[in-house]
Model the fold of this input.
Amino acid sequence: MSYCSFSNGEEYKNHFQPGIYVCSECGHELFSSTSKFEHSSPWPAFSETIHGDSVSKHPEAWGPVKVCCGKCGNGLGHEFLYDGPRDGLSRF
Done:
């Protein structure tokens, strides 16, 4: 499955079958379906990455943290701190 390709709606927002979400550019493993949860945003939402090096994080001045593929640097969106499915978890 590719992640973060947005064209006329996000095709994986309501996709909850078991599997691994990978970078659409290089195929690097990013998120597991076990960390995916329903959220009001128009994109898929995950509470954690699959590996420690799945993503690189770049703080931005206005709050969220910019998230890129840990292997190729492809932009994946943002990490919203404390907006996950349970207290203390983030939303990617």
In short: Residues 4 and 76 are 6 Å apart (CA to CA). The domain at 36-91 is CATH 2.170.150.20 (Metal Binding Protein, Guanine Nucleotide Exchange Factor; Chain A).
